[in-house]
């Protein structure tokens, strides 16, 4: 597993918003840069890179793969193919949470509006202040750099503790809620972290934090200028005394893979409780019955990791065990989506079945009852979807759903015997109306099926076999007959 954590740390991608609430934009034509976009789409996303020799120096790379650069006269371009002298910047955090970007070789500050951008200011004024809007999917695992432990909703359920060796189960899911340039940390039960470490149901100034950055790691500064840090033996997450972030105040956001529970035809849960054998023989769901589903980026095959860090693997005679410590050909499985149920195919080309004693074995040539499983996603009680064009959220003036917004709404995902119901914060359910338009004000639930075709993406299908997609007008519709980019969603 990665040295810094259980999963991969997310690369920091973000939009920069100027004093006129416009996003810094990289244009393909002439690699020109302006600040004239009201929302964050592909052209407004920047990736932060750091100088390996001097971690205080950063480079800003656009969606075009080119770097932001300034010359000695303050002229700004976005066309540098490699991070040369003019691409070197310092981030100077401001008291209100915004950033000032200072050219390292020329010591001038970057700012301006629309197409009048320059890096020639000697001092930081309002035009040189940029708000940071993260563009990564806002649901992740939070790793303390100093403690090398993960944040989770504690068993007392009154605080977030940073004492978990691995980010396991729904309690380890953290949702970043962006509001007016600041971020709130939301737990899986929809409560906000207050700066005193308590969890509260409503959003207050004391639950809002500005993002700091040091050596490529994140820090969270509260409204009083103090930083979040794990405190005490259980690592209670709260604001400490520090007004400057040290190692104790630094965090990584790590990718949150889907974690699932399987129920076999015998109505029992698949488990590793009995040792290395994978068997459907338990009546309750615990960490031993939960598996992290990791998806190979190239082959799209699935790997299932246990909470002990080992993988399901095919061994002799077709038996499935949890003896693999790393990914290899025998740890890769295909999933076939069959309505409310799934079938698993192992690397030997055989389907996984449940034997009479509950043991899982890949010995079947076809799919019958013994080869079907109910698979439940357990670590997305709150659903945030982002597609090719942006996030899904309620339409401002109708009961439809936008699929191309730079802001997101949080929906509740409810499991229903192999299907899922999706509910908005106002209590209305998603349903498919005439013409395939997805609406959000249903009085009762309607079934949808989740499929996981590739790494980091989910597809949502109706019982009629149509996939939800964002149409050209930015409206969510059930109009996809086959899977393509418009029907794949970060979740």
Automatic annotation (TrEMBL):
<feature type="domain" description="Fascin-like">
    <location>
        <begin position="22"/>
        <end position="132"/>
    </location>
</feature>
<comment type="similarity">
    <text>Belongs to the fascin family.</text>
</comment>
<dbReference type="GO" id="GO:0030674">
    <property type="term" value="F:protein-macromolecule adaptor activity"/>
</dbReference>
<keyword id="KW-0009">Actin-binding</keyword>
<dbReference type="InterPro" id="IPR008999">
    <property type="entry name" value="Actin-crosslinking"/>
</dbReference>
<feature type="domain" description="Fascin-like">
    <location>
        <begin position="143"/>
        <end position="253"/>
    </location>
</feature>
<dbReference type="GO" id="GO:0007163">
    <property type="term" value="P:establishment or maintenance of cell polarity"/>
</dbReference>
<dbReference type="GO" id="GO:0016477">
    <property type="term" value="P:cell migration"/>
</dbReference>
<protein>
    <recommendedName>
        <fullName>Fascin</fullName>
    </recommendedName>
</protein>
<dbReference type="Pfam" id="PF06268">
    <property type="entry name" value="Fascin"/>
</dbReference>
<keyword id="KW-0206">Cytoskeleton</keyword>
<dbReference type="GO" id="GO:0015629">
    <property type="term" value="C:actin cytoskeleton"/>
</dbReference>
<keyword id="KW-0963">Cytoplasm</keyword>
<dbReference type="GO" id="GO:0051017">
    <property type="term" value="P:actin filament bundle assembly"/>
</dbReference>
<dbReference type="InterPro" id="IPR022768">
    <property type="entry name" value="Fascin-like_dom"/>
</dbReference>
<feature type="domain" description="Fascin-like">
    <location>
        <begin position="389"/>
        <end position="491"/>
    </location>
</feature>
<dbReference type="GO" id="GO:0005737">
    <property type="term" value="C:cytoplasm"/>
</dbReference>
<dbReference type="InterPro" id="IPR024703">
    <property type="entry name" value="Fascin_metazoans"/>
</dbReference>
<feature type="domain" description="Fascin-like">
    <location>
        <begin position="266"/>
        <end position="374"/>
    </location>
</feature>
<dbReference type="GO" id="GO:0051015">
    <property type="term" value="F:actin filament binding"/>
</dbReference>
<dbReference type="InterPro" id="IPR010431">
    <property type="entry name" value="Fascin"/>
</dbReference>
């Amino acid at each position: 597993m990665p040295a810094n954590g259980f999963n991969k740390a997310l690369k920091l991608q973000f939009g920069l918003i100027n004093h006129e609430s416009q996003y810094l934009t990289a244009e393909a034509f002439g690699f020109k840069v302006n600040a004239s976009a009201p929302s964050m789409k592909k052209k407004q996303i920047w990736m932060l890179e750091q100088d390996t020799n001097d971690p205080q120096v950063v480079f800003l790379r656009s969606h075009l793969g080119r770097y932001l650069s300034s010359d000695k006269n303050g002229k700004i371009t976005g066309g540098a193919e490699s991070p040369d002298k003019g691409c070197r910047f310092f981030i100077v955090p401001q008291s209100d949470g915004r950033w000032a970007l200072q050219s390292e070789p020329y010591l001038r500050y970057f700012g301006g509006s629309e197409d009048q951008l320059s890096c020639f200011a000697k001092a930081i004024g309002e035009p040189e202040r940029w708000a940071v809007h993260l563009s990564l999917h806002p649901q992740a695992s939070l790793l303390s750099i100093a403690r090398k432990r993960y944040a989770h909703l504690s068993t007392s359920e009154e605080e977030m503790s940073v004492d978990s060796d691995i980010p396991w189960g729904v309690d380890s899911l953290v949702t970043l809620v962006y509001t007016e340039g600041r971020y709130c940390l939301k737990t899986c039960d929809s409560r906000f972290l207050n700066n005193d470490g308590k969890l509260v149901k409503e959003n207050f100034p004391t639950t809002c934090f500005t993002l700091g950055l040091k050596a490529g790691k994140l820090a969270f500064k509260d409204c009083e200028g103090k930083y979040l840090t794990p405190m005490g033996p259980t690592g209670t997450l709260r604001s400490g005394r520090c007004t400057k972030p040290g190692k104790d105040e630094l965090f990584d956001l790590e990718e949150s893979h889907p974690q699932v529970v399987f129920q076999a035809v015998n109505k029992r849960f698949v488990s590793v409780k009995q040792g290395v054998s994978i068997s459907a023989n338990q009546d309750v769901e615990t960490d031993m019955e939960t598996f992290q589903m990791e998806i190979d980026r190239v082959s799209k095959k699935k790997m299932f990791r246990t909470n002990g860090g080992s993988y399901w693997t095919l061994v002799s005679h077709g038996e499935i065990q949890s003896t693999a410590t790393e990914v290899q050909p025998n740890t890769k499985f295909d999933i076939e989506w069959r309505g409310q149920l799934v079938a698993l195919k192992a690397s030997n080309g055989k389907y996984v079945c449940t034997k009479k004693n509950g043991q899982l074995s890949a010995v079947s040539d076809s799919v019958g009852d013994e080869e079907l499983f109910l698979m439940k996603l357990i670590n997305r009680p709150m659903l945030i979807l982002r597609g090719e064009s942006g996030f899904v959220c309620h339409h401002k003036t109708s009961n439809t759903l936008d699929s191309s917004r730079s802001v997101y709404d949080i929906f509740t995902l409810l499991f229903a015997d192999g299907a899922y119901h999706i509910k908005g914060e106002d209590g209305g359910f998603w349903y498919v109306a005439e013409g395939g338009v997805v609406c959000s004000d249903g009085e009762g639930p309607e079934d949808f099926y989740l499929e996981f075709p590739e790494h980091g993406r989910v597809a949502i299908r109706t019982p009629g076999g149509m996939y939800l997609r964002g149409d050209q007008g930015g409206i969510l519709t059930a109009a996809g007959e086959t899977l393509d980019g418009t029907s794949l969603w970060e979740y």
